[in-house]
Structure formats: C-alpha cells, structure tokens
Write a structure and sequence with these properties.
Blueprint lengths: L3 H6 L2 H10 L20 E6 L6 H11 L2 E5 L4 H8 L6 E2 L9 E7 L10 H10 L3 E11 L8 H20 L5 E7 L8 H7 L11 E4 L20 E5 L4 H12 L3 E6 L4 H11 L2 E4 L7 H11 L3 E6 L14 H24 L3 E10 L3 H4 L5 H22 L4 E7 L5 H4 L3 H9 L9 H12 L10 E4 L8
Parallel strand pairs: 1-2, 1-4, 2-3, 4-5, 5-6, 6-7, 8-9, 8-11, 9-10, 11-12, 12-13, 13-14
The structure holds nicotinamide-adenine-dinucleotide.
C-alpha cells in the first residue's frame, strides 16, 4: 500500500511544512538491486583496545571491493589494509572530520573493560555527522556469555546500549547493528557483513546478531550474486505478501523455489511459481498428513536445502471473547505445524545436511499485542522453537533462525484501521513501514550457504519499532 505521508514529506512543499511543524521526516530507503556493489561509498574503520577482527575485515573489504579509511585512533588499520592489498588512508585528524562516508565499522572485540569505552566515544563523536543518507553502522564485539573475564563480558554487553541509541540518533535512513563474533569464528563474518553493510538491511536496525563456529561446512558461494545456485528452497505462504517477496529473493539468489500455499490460493500461487520458474505446491500445512506429504515431495526432488516457514494467520479477539477453535487454529498453523514439519523433514533426511530452516515470528511475539493472545503465543513459541531446536539440528549440520517483522506494508496491514496503521508506520526509527522485500532479504542472509555460523538468531525487521523495543 502507498505511504502518502512519505511522498508528501519528500515533496518541496511538504518538506518545508514538516520541518516547520517538527514532524517525522521519513526518507525513501535505498534497497538492493541485483548485481550492484555491496557498499556504495567509503567505510570508516575504528576500534578499541587490541581489535581482533582487523584481518578478517580487511579480507572482507577486499572480497567486496570496498574503499576504507582509518580513524586517527586506529592507525594500525592502514598497515593491515595495505598488507591485504587494499588502498586506504587516514580520515580527518586533530578533531576535524574527513570526507563523508557510507558506513562506520567499529571493532570493539579488543575492549577488555568499561574504562576503555572512551574509544567508542571518540570514534562515534567524530564520525556521527559524516555518514551519508541510508548509511550503515556496524559494531563488532565478542559474545558476553563467552567472555572469560566478568569485566570483559560487561563492556561487551554495554555495546547493545550504544547500537540501540545510535539507531535512534542517526536518522536519515541510517541503521546501526551489533554483531557478536565468537572466538574462532572470525572467518565466518562475510555473509553477515554483506547483509548489514548493503541496502539489503534497509529496515533492520538496533539488532544484535551472533556469528559462531560453523554448523556443518562453511561454503563460500562461487558467485556471491547467486549464493543459492543449485539449491531447492520451499517457501510456505508464497502466493502473496511477504511469502511472494521471499520466493522472489530466493529465485534472484539462484534457487529453485517450491512455492506452497493453500489450495484456495492456487491461482496466485501458480502465477508466482511461473514468474519465478519454480513449482507450485497446493497444500494446507495445518492438515495432519502435511508433514508426510512434504517429506514425500522433498524426497521426490532429491531433498530440499532450505525451508522458509512464512505461512501464518491471525484470528484476533481479546481472550475473553475468543472461541477455543480460533486459539487452536492459530497455534496449529503458526507453530505446532512447523514443529511437526521440521521434525519430519530432518528425521527423514529430506532436509539435507547443510540445510537451513528459517521461521517468521513477529514483534507481537516479543511485545504481545491487544487482541492477539493466540497469535502472540504462536509467534513467541516460534522463538522458543528456534532456541530449543538449534543445538539439536546443529548435529545434522542444519541451522535454524527467525525473523520477527514489525509493520510491513502488505494486504494484512492495509486492512488495519487508519490511525493504528499510521502509528505503526511512524513509531520507529525509519518513520515508515517496511516492505516485504526487507523481510525477504534478512531470510536470504540466513539461507546463504556462507551463513553456517549463523544459527539460533532472532532478528527483528522493524526499523527499530518502539513497540516491544
Ligand atoms: N505483514 C506484517 O506486517 C507482518 C508482521 C509480523 C509478522 N508477519 C508474519 O509474516 C508472515 C506473512 O505475512 P503476510 O503479511 O504476507 O500475510 P498474508 O496473509 O498476506 O500471507 C500469508 C500466506 O500464508 C498462507 N497460509 C495461511 N495458512 C496456510 C496454511 N494452513 N497452509 C498453507 N498456507 C497458508 C495464506 O494463504 C497466505 O498466502 C506471517 O507468518 C505473518 O504472521 C507479518
């Protein structure tokens, strides 16, 4: 659905009025176009203590062909970058900023205790005003729960406060995210940085991601523009909305897509499958025999590589007014069904080793929502399913992760009453709703064969919504 306020705020007359009234000014967000460079601009690098990811970062910038500059408190970057064959230089100096940059990347892995947090202050104080619109801020740290010293765990945990505050302060469509990288997982960060530093992460802000040792093999794609080449991906609820966008991104990334939806949606489903050169599978996933039918379908195709559990329903009523069957229906389709399907596909070997399971939760499952007890139970349960099954599926070389969308522009949200819809659109750091493709791009990151170190993550695609923050 068209966001009239966004268009008005970016018209010459509207911009003046909005400035005068001090109203939120959403900027049209940059979105990824197939084949474009990952980073369109220069990256400013900073770090504190003895940063431990500089070599991994130099390898990454070499791989994506990005230009980098060193903040004056990180002069060692120049030598590391030169060693990797990158041209680089110093940025600003003597308290004066340098050129405008597209991204800020701060390696905080070397911070050993809170007395060293000044390094964060100097870098972001100097650079905050020098980031171009729709720029990116990425902070890299060590997972606090894996730090041996309590003081190190404390300062690493404090990074969350910085990332979340920067997400609110930066404005102009700039996001800020934190990635905790386990020791020994330094070589696994490429897929995550490609996602976060590119327009693919347009509506992802103030999130905390974890990259660990690979589950199964870490396979760098031969062609990063086609990371899913040769992969078979099942997307449920693919006839429209977010599911259609997920199927499109999977196909763009090279996958053969199996588009699933209920038989009543057959027409839309066929159209999506045809457009993407995929196949259509009309099936109600809530039916008792659905898991076995999926096992049979997967085996007939030699096994699947990725399952995206996107299909979901709402049946909103306050709990006092809700009929039992509406509770059961929502919990079954949104949660119990997914548990059954995962167990069936994994135990039958129909989801291959190195496979990916990606689930769609919701910010309702994190914050709760009036009139959505059944839905919130199902979506919070999805997070529980990710957390509890990640170690079990890891033994099969399979990752499981979830996205929790906020306000996304779909038929579902177009049906929401005007005042609530406007509140949902504006009450986030981007002052606008997300697009289905924003959810799809996050799923593309999880689905990549290079994301073996990414499991048991739940990230919100919500523009840093105030709801459930
Ligand atoms: N739109 C948002 O703002 C938003 C926010 C948070 C979470 N989500 C979640 O994102 C997912 C997609 O949402 P959407 O807005 O595109 O919804 P949508 O209603 O447009 O699409 C959902 C699709 O799932 C299919 N589906 C429903 N039950 C099914 C079943 N039993 N078997 C097979 N297919 C079934 C539907 O036919 C439909 O095509 C859902 O899980 C939803 O809960 C959406």
């Amino acid at each position: 659905m068209k966001d009239g306020y966004l268009d008005f705020a970016n018209s010459p007359m509207g911009a003046k009025l909005i400035n005068a009234l001090g109203l939120p000014k959403p900027l049209p967000l940059e979105r990824y176009k197939a084949g474009q460079p990952v980073i369109q601009g220069t990256v400013l690098i900073g770090g504190g203590g003895e940063p431990q990811l500089l070599e991994a970062l130099s390898a990454f910038f070499k791989s994506v062909g990005a230009q980098s500059l060193a903040h004056e408190k990180l002069p060692q970057w120049v030598a590391v970058a030169n060693k990797a064959g990158l041209t680089t230089g110093r940025w600003g100096g003597n308290g004066k900023p340098g050129e405008k940059v597209k991204c800020l990347v701060f390696d905080a892995t070397g911070l050993e205790d809170s007395t060293q947090s000044d390094a964060l202050y100097w870098f972001f104080h100097d650079a905050a005003r020098s980031v171009l619109p729709c720029g990116r801020v990425v902070i890299l740290g060590r997972p606090p729960e894996e730090c041996k010293s309590p003081r190190k765990a404390t300062v690493q945990r404090s990074l969350e406060g910085l990332a979340r505050s920067l997400g609110k302060e930066m404005k102009k469509g700039i996001n800020a995210n934190l990635v905790y990288v386990s020791e020994g997982a330094e070589g696994n960060i490429e897929s995550t940085l490609r996602f976060l530093l590119s327009p693919k992460s347009a509506y992802v802000s103030a999130q905390v991601m974890r990259v660990g040792k690979p589950v199964g093999d870490l396979v760098a794609p031969k062609d990063w523009n086609l990371p899913l080449a040769g992969k078979k991906v099942l997307v449920t609820g693919a006839s429209r909305g977010i599911g259609e966008a997920i199927a499109e991104v999977m196909a763009r990334d090279g996958a053969q897509v199996i588009c699933l939806d209920v038989p009543q949606a057959q027409e839309g489903l066929n159209a999506v499958a045809k457009k993407l050169g995929g196949t259509a599978l009309a099936l109600d996933i809530g039916a008792a025999d659905a898991p076995q039918k999926l096992v049979d379908a997967a085996k007939a195709q030699g096994g699947w590589d990725v399952i995206v559990h996107n299909a979901g329903i709402t049946r909103d009523k306050t709990i006092a007014n809700m009929k039992e069957h509406l509770w059961q229906l929502v919990v079954n389709v949104n949660l119990s069904t997914q548990e059954r399907i995962n167990e069936a596909l994994v135990s039958a070997g129909a989801l291959k080793a190195g496979g990916r399971i990606v689930c769609v939760s919701s910010i309702s499952g994190i914050a709760g929502n009036m009139g959505q007890t059944n839905y919130a139970v199902s979506k919070a349960g999805v997070i529980g399913m990710v957390n509890s099954s990640a170690p079990i599926f890891a033994e099969h070389g399979i990752t499981i992760n979830a996205v929790a969308p906020g306000f996304i522009e779909t038929q579902m949200t177009a049906a929401v009453p005007f005042a609530i819809r406007e509140a949902g659109r504006r009450m986030n750091s981007m002052s606008q709703g997300g697009q289905p493709v924003d959810v799809a791009e996050a799923i593309g990151w999880y689905a990549s064969p290079a994301s073996s170190g990414v499991t048991n993550n739940v990230i919100r695609v919500c523009g840093q919504s105030l709801i459930g923050a």
